[in-house]
Automatic annotation (TrEMBL):
Coiled coil: none annotated. Keywords: Hydrolase. GO terms for molecular function: hydrolase activity. Residues 26-257 form the AB hydrolase-1 domain. It comes from the Bacteria. Pfam families: Abhydrolase_6. InterPro entries: AB_hydrolase_1 (IPR000073), AB_hydrolase_fold (IPR029058), Carboxylesterase_BioH (IPR050228). This is Alpha/beta hydrolase.
């Protein structure tokens, strides 16, 4: 599905069913240097179990036009513009990593537009080492190797994909290798600069779900639980032997957590 947001063409995968704003919408927001394909299994499940789905490519990513936005706050405002373009009054937001910060900030500052928020692989702060920031900014392929390697837990380093013949880490390399040079650097800089995590969590007025990997080396589960403790209405799900890429490393468990949180039918 293509939409026009702030004058730019935006692509969103709808999970195999046409988007209908009359059905409760859910927006899936990917992390740094990624696109909508990280949500392949979750988007299809949600679309066939009562939700209208927008698994979006953020500006400058995947099949969406434009330049990457330079801050979490700008991306959060963009999500509201996306809802307007789709004709959706409110939506549930599901975000991973950078996308989780975007979902958190959107819900904190635009609470009237957000029904509920699910945050995967998240922490109050997501600092990025200056050397990695420089490599990502300059398009050094080592940046992708570091992000993909650190982003996966034990199962990702031994294949780990539920689909026969596929492997998580090579898949991650291929996905991030398609991103335009410099985009990963913009994304990581936005994560590094965002300091409002605690303030945003305390401002949430909607229910929040935290889906955390026990083997996450990028946003450790301890940090995710500490952020959840600042939210008035929060629940946490800890996925064992799972790294930062919770939705691809543990897709079924992630679906179960989202289905319970959003009270979806299972037939």
């Amino acid at each position: 599905m293509e939409l026009t947001v702030n004058g730019q063409t935006v692509f969103a995968h709808t999970g195999g069913r046409a988007f209908d704003p009359a059905r409760p919408p859910v927006v899936l927001i990917h992390g740094a240097g990624m696109d909508h394909t990280v949500w392949s299994l979750q988007s299809r499940f949600l679309a066939h179990h009562g939700r209208s789905v927008l698994a979006v490519d953020l500006p400058g990513h995947g099949r969406s036009a434009g330049e990457p936005l330079p801050s979490i706050e700008a991306l959060a405002d963009w999500v509201v513009a996306l809802l307007d373009a789709a004709g959706a009054g409110t939506a549930a937001l599901v975000g991973h990593s950078m996308g989780a910060l975007v979902a958190l900030d959107t819900a904190a500052r635009h609470g009237g537009r957000v029904e509920a928020v699910a945050l995967l692989g998240v922490a109050e702060r997501m600092p990025v080492h200056p050397d990695l920031l420089a490599m990502a900014r300059d398009g050094d392929p080592v940046a992708i190797e570091l992000v993909v390697g650190w982003g996966h837990g034990p199962r990702g380093h031994v294949g780990g994909c539920r689909a026969p013949g596929l492997s998580l880490i090579p898949g991650g390399r291929r996905l991030m290798g398609t991103v335009r040079p410099g985009v990963l650097g913009v994304d990581l800089a936005a994560c590094n600069a965002f300091t409002r995590g605690a303030e945003a969590a305390e401002a949430l007025s909607c229910p929040a779900l935290f889906v955390l990997g026990s083997a996450d080396r990028m946003t450790p589960a301890k940090a995710g639980r500490a952020l959840a403790a600042r939210v008035r209405d929060a629940r946490s799900v800890l996925l064992p032997a799972t790294g930062h890429m919770v939705m691809t490393e543990a897709p079924d468990a992630t679906i179960d957590a989202l289905a319970d949180f959003l009270r979806l039918r299972r037939d």
